[in-house]
Structure to design on (858 residues):
């Protein structure tokens, strides 16, 4: 479904992402992990059209996305969320989600109906009329997700939707993501929270200093102490064996 | 919308329609005309600034272009003002498209957009001062030949009804923004352009439409001004004062609301008439305007309308 | 042709005015560099400084250059207080609010001046107003020469202040990383107000240096608003060197443009430069970021 080849980007001579190849098959949950500053968000930004790559290609459903603006990419069925949540602060939760829903319908009532359905799905129906800037961190993360879902994408790019959440909230959102996948949406996510990624994804890529250093099923990655120790910080392998207190 | 609100608005409209019959004082009719006209221009700013969040400091450029368009058509080519008004509408939209295309294509946002619109207004002013067909610094005197074709009247009620019609149309446009996808997109762009883009909003196109609608309204406003006051010159047509008034009535009344510009216009012109009545010194009403602007930003970020709506928008701690 | 002989004179005159422009722009760029705000009241505050200088001369007989000692500190304190207890408090940290508040201030100051001082243009008659220096190809009025060198000196002093003193260090720290500066115990609000005060002090100096060869009326500031913004955008928002070079470029552009296009159309050059720079090189000639 998504096919990235040789993607590279540098800022002022510093390579943020170099020569990354990866692919996401339809119906799967694929994750991209790596330490802070590994270039994950830069990679996402290029895939979603927010940054122009220096080299390489991004193909989505066998069509090149080169030069397409984010809204066009969204139109093709791929939508991203933001690591630092970007709510439309002055609007209500419902109005936020309606912006996404309007992507599929110009009718106000229809958009509202669809937005409410999405809010139901992500468990935010009660906050529909609440102003978005009054939401908690967890609420904002869900809102990001809800807005993106409302555009009815085929591929959802999630940028650290679990960062800053407590274990209960993480469990909830993991369940939510599984549900979304069950609904037929392919998911490609960046995550810092190891534990969650491991029991969520079908396939994992590890990025460090802009370079892919490992890929495979999560179990293989997790079992590779070399990868874990070297790229996820000292002692990470230890923490992962005891997942109940393992979120960073 | 609640039935009571609808009834209230209907009553207001009826009152506005019969006002000239009830008010014998010509001066008062003139004041009301100006209030409505100012609300109309304010709404033109509000669509771009209040709804789409693109603060323009030079919206007078649409107004001035409209005023010159119909006045030149009338005085040089003898074309009636109502046709001139249509031409002014297109001229204003065209200037909007021109300024918008350049600014938005090159990604100017926030304060930079405000400054570049100011600079455009300045360029237009110097040009109007320097070329022949605008009458240069002397300006254009418009003959007074009352009649509907010229949109000129002996009875001030004539101008009043036109201003009322303009205001009602502008309110309808804002009302439509509140109910439509386009309006939702504008608000999304105002709140967070990147997030809007990510959700499939073509921000560039939406901003272009917004500035063209704003420009078209400003253009028509220019024609109305010229036909009423019968004289324009570069400082009137492209001066900062009108730009400031346009944003002032919107902000004071409440940016991004349907009735904000109208409320703001009533309050500001009311204040103006009162201060002018008691103290006849130049500058005083503008001092008060400036202080009101500062106070509103500081204490009533949602404008006077916000007082009635209850929910105040919490302030961002820091713009990232 | 007239332009061949007039050209060198126009350039030198442009340089003289450019130094003052640079000083005005320096204040604006400092405020932008530290606070990341656009001070729309800049022109109006310059106008107030000009009036201060004017009244110190006409009422108290104080020479404008001596006034520097009064107007510069006065402007500093005024600017400090204005930001600390006015703009900073009312803006709630939103950039567009600051833009609108400083617009409101500009309106209040301009019309306050109109109310108090009337719309008449005021000039002062200093004994040395008509003395001039003969450079062979051009006569330069003495006040312009003085203002040129004084402006450059003040720019140098300001640079020293920023580069060598603790206060300068704190200001630069805040400019670079305000959260970090807050964490290491710098009073950020104080530093913001200091920077604003210093920016306005630059205007105080410009007012004193400008008045002997210029005039003042309530709308004088408007002339300088677009010019100062143009210089700052041209030189790169927040760049010191940029403000200096930009000041000279604009000074020369204006006087040479006036020579070829006439007074009125010459003005358009500034606005056009402004628009073009904003569109095609918003980081300016020396800026690194928008």
């Amino acid at each position: 479904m998504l096919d990235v080849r040789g993607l590279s980007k540098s800022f002022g001579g510093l390579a943020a992402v170099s020569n990354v190849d990866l692919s996401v098959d339809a119906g799967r949950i694929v994750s991209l992990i790596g330490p802070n500053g590994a270039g994950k968000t830069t990679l996402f930004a290029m895939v979603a059209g927010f940054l122009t790559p220096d080299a390489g290609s991004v193909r989505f459903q066998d069509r090149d996305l080169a030069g397409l603006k984010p809204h066009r990419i969204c139109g093709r069925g791929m939508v991203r969320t933001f690591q630092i949540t970007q709510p439309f602060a002055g609007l209500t939760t419902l109005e936020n989600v309606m912006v996404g829903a309007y992507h599929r319908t110009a009718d106000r009532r229809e958009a509202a109906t669809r937005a409410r359905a999405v809010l139901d799905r992500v468990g935010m129906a009660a906050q529909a009329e609440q102003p978005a800037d009054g939401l908690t961190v967890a609420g904002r993360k869900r809102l990001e997700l809800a807005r993106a879902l409302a555009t009815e994408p085929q591929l959802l790019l999630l940028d650290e939707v679990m960062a800053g959440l407590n274990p209960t909230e993480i469990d909830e959102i993991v369940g939510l993501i599984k549900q979304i996948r069950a609904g037929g949406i392919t998911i490609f996510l960046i995550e810092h929270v190891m534990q969650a990624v491991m029991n969520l994804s079908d396939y994992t890529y590890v990025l460090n200093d802009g370079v892919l250093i490992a890929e495979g099923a999560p179990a293989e990655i997790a079992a590779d102490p070399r990868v874990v120790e070297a790229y996820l910080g000292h002692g990470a392998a230890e923490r992962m064996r005891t997942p109940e207190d393992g979120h960073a | 919308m609640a039935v009571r609100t609808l009834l209230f608005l209907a009553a207001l409209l009826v009152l506005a329609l019969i006002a000239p019959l009830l008010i014998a004082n010509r001066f008062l009719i003139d004041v009301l005309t100006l209030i409505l006209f100012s609300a109309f221009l304010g709404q033109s700013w509000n669509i771009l600034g209040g709804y789409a969040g693109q603060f323009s400091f030079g919206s007078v450029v649409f107004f001035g272009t409209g005023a010159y368009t119909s006045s030149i058509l009338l005085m040089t080519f003898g074309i009636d003002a109502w046709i001139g008004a249509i031409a002014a509408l297109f001229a204003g939209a065209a200037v909007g498209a021109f300024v918008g295309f350049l600014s938005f294509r090159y990604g100017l946002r926030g304060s930079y957009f405000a400054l570049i619109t100011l600079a455009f207004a300045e360029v237009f002013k110097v040009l109007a001062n320097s070329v022949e067909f605008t009458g240069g610094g002397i300006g254009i005197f418009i003959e007074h030949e009352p009649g509907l074709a010229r949109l000129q009247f002996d009875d001030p009620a004539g101008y009043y009804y036109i201003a009322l019609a303009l205001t009602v149309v502008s309110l309808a446009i804002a009302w439509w923004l509140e109910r439509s996808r386009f309006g939702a997109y504008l608000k999304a762009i105002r709140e967070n352009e990147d997030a809007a883009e990510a959700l499939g909003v073509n921000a560039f196109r939406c901003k272009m439409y917004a500035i063209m609608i704003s420009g078209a309204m400003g253009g028509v406003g220019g024609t109305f001004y010229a036909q009423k006051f019968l004289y324009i010159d570069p400082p009137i047509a492209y001066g900062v004062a009108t730009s400031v008034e346009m944003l002032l009535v919107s902000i004071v009344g409440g940016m991004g609301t349907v009735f904000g510009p109208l409320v703001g216009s009533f309050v500001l012109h009311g204040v103006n008439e009162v201060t002018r009545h008691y103290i006849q010194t130049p500058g005083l009403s503008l001092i008060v305007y400036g202080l009101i602007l500062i106070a509103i930003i500081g204490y009533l970020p949602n404008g006077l309308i916000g007082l009635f709506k209850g929910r105040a928008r919490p302030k961002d701690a820091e713009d990232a | 042709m007239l332009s061949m002989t007039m050209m060198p004179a126009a350039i030198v005159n442009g340089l003289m005015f450019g130094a003052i422009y640079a000083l005005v722009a320096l204040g604006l760029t400092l405020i932008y560099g530290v606070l990341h705000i656009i001070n729309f009241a800049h022109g109006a505050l310059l106008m107030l400084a000009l009036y201060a200088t004017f009244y110190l001369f006409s009422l108290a007989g104080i020479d404008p250059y001596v006034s520097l000692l009064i107007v510069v500190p006065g402007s500093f304190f005024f600017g400090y207080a204005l930001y600390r207890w006015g703009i900073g408090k009312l803006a709630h940290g939103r950039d567009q609010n600051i833009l609108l508040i400083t617009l409101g201030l500009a309106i209040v100051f301009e019309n306050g001046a109109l109310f108090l001082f009337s719309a008449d243009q005021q000039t002062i008659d200093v004994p040395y107003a008509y003395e001039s220096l003969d450079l062979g190809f051009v006569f330069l009025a003495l006040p312009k020469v003085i203002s040129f060198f004084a402006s450059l000196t003040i720019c140098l002093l300001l640079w020293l202040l920023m580069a060598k003193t603790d206060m300068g260090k704190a200001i630069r720290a805040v400019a670079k990383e305000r959260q970090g500066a807050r964490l290491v115990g710098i009073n950020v609000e104080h530093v913001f107000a200091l920077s604003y005060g210093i920016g306005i002090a630059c205007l105080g100096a410009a007012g004193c240096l400008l008045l002997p060869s210029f005039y003042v009326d309530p709308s004088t500031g408007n002339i300088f608003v677009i010019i100062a913004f143009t210089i700052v955008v041209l030189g790169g928002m927040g760049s010191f060197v940029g403000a200096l070079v930009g000041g000279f470029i604009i000074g020369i552009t204006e006087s040479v443009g006036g020579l070829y296009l006439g007074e009125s159309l010459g003005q358009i050059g500034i606005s056009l430069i402004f628009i073009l720079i904003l569109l095609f090189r918003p980081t300016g000639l020396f800026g690194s970021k928008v």
User: Anything to note?
Assistant: The radius of gyration of chain C is 19 Å. Chain C has one domain: 2-280. Chain C has a mean pLDDT of 85. The CA atoms of residues 66 and 208 of chain C lie 9 Å apart.
